[in-house]
Amino acid sequence: MSVLTGRTAVVTGGSRGIGRAIALKLASLGANVAIVYAGRTDAAQAVCGELECLGVKALACQCDVADFAAVKETVGAVKAGFGTIDILVNNAGITRDGLIAMMGEEAFDAVLDANLKGAFNLIRHCTPIFMRQRRGKIINISSVVGLSGNSGQANYSASKAGLIGLTKSVAKELSSRGVCCNAIAPGLIQTEMTRDLEGSPLLSAIPLGRAGQPEEVAELAAFLASPASDYITGEVIRIDGGMCM
Questions:
Q1: Which residues form the catalytic set?
Q2: Any keyword Oxidoreductase (predicted)?
């Protein structure tokens, strides 16, 4: 029996990139997986097909994670379909990069709503489930720019720094109920979101000399979702090739 057999995971932003890699890894360990996606139905259905080929149940849920009521409905649908939720991976995120002197209010609000409020919404609606069953794993995908900041990404950096504060507060609130909440802070990972950074000077700032792969982040997420991490909570773990050490 695999370590996550019988468990149910919700992965936001699960139709591509890091989210897809995490969904596939959790499924390979036996977890049933619900992926939450914003707009790419074809990609979400394709991922569900891949998950089912691994012998688990899969569900694709289209939802705006920034919408409190819509998230409540989605969490209810997942619980109804799978019986419970054991693992929550808050991976959904967007960018609207620009220098602070020229950044519009919409660009700031959109990123905070999707990246930070979205994570709050999922945590808020999954928490009663976790508390009743006295177990749960929450994994928030932050970023190294939430630790160090980044020029041209004031909104994105603020959202990812906010995720770190959210992670630590949730860890303190829910630890007495057996719920662990941790954050992963990736560096430069090869995804659609970072494709324009290839050949960037950022690569020279990485001691290991390369960008990371989504599957490497997925391995870390799988560890944090597994019983092996039951005594780890409130942590922020960088996976950045040494960029921010």
A1: 156
A2: yes
15 is in an annotated binding site: yes
47, two tokens: 């991922």
Contact status, residue 31 vs residue 224, Cβ threshold 8 Å: no
Strands 58-62 and 87-90: unpaired
169 is known to lie in a ligand binding site: no
- The pLDDT tens digits for 91-135 are 999 999 999 999 999 999 999 999 999 999 999 999 999 999 999
Q: Are 212 and 240 in contact (CB under 8 A)?
A: yes
Q: Calculate ∠ Cα 239-242-245, nearest 5°.
A: 105
Task: Return the DSSP state at 201.
Answer: G
Q: For 155-177, what is the mean pLDDT? A: 98
| Residue count of the chain | 245
Q: Which residues contact 61 (CB under 8 A, 6 or more apart)?
A: 34, 35, 36, 37, 74, 77, 78
> Concatenated DSSP letters for 127-182?
HHHHHHHT-EEEEEE--THHHH--TTBHHHHHHHHHHHHHHHHHHHHHGGGTEEEE
- pLDDT, tens digit (0-9, with 9 covering 90-100), for 132-158: 999 999 999 999 999 999 999 999 999
Strand order in the sheet with 32-37: 58-62, 32-37, 8-12, 87-90, 136-141, 179-186, 236-239
Q: Is 189 annotated as a binding residue?
A: yes
Q: Is 154 annotated in some ligand binding site?
A: no
Could you tell me the pLDDT band of residue 199, with boundaries at 50, 70 and 90?
low
